[in-house]
């Protein structure tokens, strides 16, 4: 029932900015947890950021703190990931994930999420 569609990926220069979007259907983003994960070639999928139970709280991987911001647009039922100061290490496929009942301690592990988008490619390169 829940569907997630990522968009906004692309090629950006180091130090640049990019905004990813996760359009959610079947669940209100104001009442559920939506997270972003990424996977670079040769690396495991890793947690990036999460918006826990709507506006209850936001959480970030240490390496992106101060550079990335996760936010929700309730009118469009969309969650965004605003990325700035991008580095080559930020490159990878970015996925959004959703779970309405996940507990806070589990939000950092993708195995706990019920729904996933198809991913959008982010490439940071000169």
Main features:
4-stranded antiparallel sheet; 0% helix
Number of strands: 11
Main beta sheet strand tally, sense and closure:
7 strands, mixed
The secondary-structure class comes to: mainly beta
Oligomer: single chain
Shape: globular
**Low-confidence region ranges:** none
The total count of helices amounts to: 0
What proportion of the residues is helical, as a percent range? under 10%
Break the fold down into its secondary structure elements and pairings.
Elements: E1 3-7, E2 10-12, E3 18-25, E4 33-39, E5 46-52, E6 57-60, E7 68-73, E8 78-83, E9 92-99, E10 115-116, E11 120-124
Parallel strand pairs: 2-11
Antiparallel strand pairs: 1-3, 3-8, 4-5, 4-9, 5-6, 7-8, 9-10, 9-11
Walkthrough of the structure:
By secondary structure, the chain is mainly beta. It is built from no helices and eleven strands. The strands form two sheets. Strands 2, 4, 5, 6, 9, 10 and 11 form a seven-stranded mixed β-sheet that branches. A four-stranded antiparallel β-sheet has the order 1-3-8-7, with no helix packed on it. The radius of gyration is 13 Å and the shape is globular. The relative contact order is 0.30. The model has no long low-confidence stretch (mean pLDDT 97).
């Amino acid at each position: 029932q829940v569907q997630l569609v990522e968009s906004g990926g692309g090629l950006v220069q180091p130090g640049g900015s990019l905004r990813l979007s996760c359009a959610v259907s079947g669940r209100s983003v104001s009442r559920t947890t939506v997270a972003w994960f990424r996977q670079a070639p040769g690396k495991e999928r890793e947690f990036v950021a999460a918006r826990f139970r709507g506006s209850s709280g936001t959480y970030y991987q240490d390496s992106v703190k101060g550079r990335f911001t996760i936010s929700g647009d309730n009118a469009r039922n969309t969650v965004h990931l605003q990325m700035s100061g991008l580095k080559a290490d930020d490159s990878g496929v970015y996925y959004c994930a959703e779970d309405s009942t996940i507990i806070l301690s589990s939000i950092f592990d993708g195995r706990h999420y019920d729904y996933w988008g198809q991913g959008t490619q982010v490439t940071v390169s000169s």
